[in-house]
């Protein structure tokens, strides 16, 4: 009969911050995540993470009540077919985004972790893609703060050897609005010098007209990209922005799955595609998207953001495998949920991250650390 999927364990996590982080869509006061452990009847356990920006218990319910009945007792080798079956559960009722897709992402990561362990390969190798053992990164992010603080933080990251950096803009009116955004880009560029790649992330805080006005002011600072200037569903806005100014347009962390990206790419609305492995549908969807990125001759830059350490590690494996890689987002912010391993996460050196060489994800969860943040 062969190996079968036998057991599911989930961990709903939350780590509250003493001081909220400020960015374009408002203050962010807690890191949350839902982790997935899937074990086969021969004792192999794979791990994955579902993005759970709000209400992580909802994701846990989706995992247990909707997706587990699909995969229980099945052959983990059929990971692509299982992805399709999970996706079909609610697609006919219009629910092909949101919590369902995020929950699928964690399951898919865990299944690929099992397959890679079974083959004795690091996960990026098991994906049978580009096979990079190291990936270039960009340091993320210099968050909205007073200008001296932003300049100092940017300088510190460059001093650590980073060759690319992302900053946040998208201030509300009471924080100075677009004029202060423009000034902050100038200050950061002057702090890091002309040779560093610099991107600016708006997190959907602008409308298209405001974006164009801001871009025309900051074009002189030679930006590598401007990210998510408008809401992810405003594809008309993306098209208008891309055709009205010269800064490459990036987006995708808020997009769910291949169908949303298909439309963005068909309409030539973005230049840099930024899917999150914990939202887009795991490695299966991430690799399928890589084929679309290659076909449309754009660039791939996996997102990590406020993810737990599992998605950060999974994103690095995805970056090692996909076609058209530009850089992997590397979060340098203090995130209590990042270091939940029995050893520290690998750190980049001179802007390059070496991937784990052990089978599967290549690292082991520390259950005592997880217990500190576990809600259920």
Give the helix/strand layout:
Blueprint: E1 5-23, E2 26-40, E3 45-51, H1 56-71, H2 79-91, H3 98-119, H4 123-126, E4 134-142, H5 147-159, E5 164-168, H6 177-192, E6 197-201, H7 208-218, E7 225-227, H8 235-242, E8 249-251, H9 257-266, E9 272-273, H10 282-295, E10 299-300, H11 309-321, E11 328-331, E12 352-354, H12 367-373
Helix pairs in contact: 1-2, 1-3, 2-3, 3-10, 5-6, 6-7, 7-8, 9-10
Summarize the structure.
By secondary structure, the protein is α/β, with parallel strands linked by helices.
Explain what you see:
- The chain is of the alpha/beta class.
- It has helices at residues 56-71, 79-91, 98-119, 123-126, 147-159, 177-192, 208-218, 235-242, 257-266, 282-295, 309-321, 367-373, and strands spanning 5-23, 26-40, 45-51, 134-142, 164-168, 197-201, 225-227, 249-251, 272-273, 299-300, 328-331, 352-354.
- Strands 4, 5, 6, 7, 8, 9, 10, 11 and 12 form a 9-stranded mixed beta sheet that branches. The protein has a 3-stranded antiparallel beta sheet with strand order 1-2-3, with helices on both faces.
- Strand 1 (5-23) and strand 2 form a beta hairpin.
- Helix 1 (56-71) crosses helix 2 and helix 2 (79-91) packs antiparallel against helix 3 (98-119).
- The two termini are 34 Å apart.
- The model has no long low-confidence stretch (mean pLDDT 95).
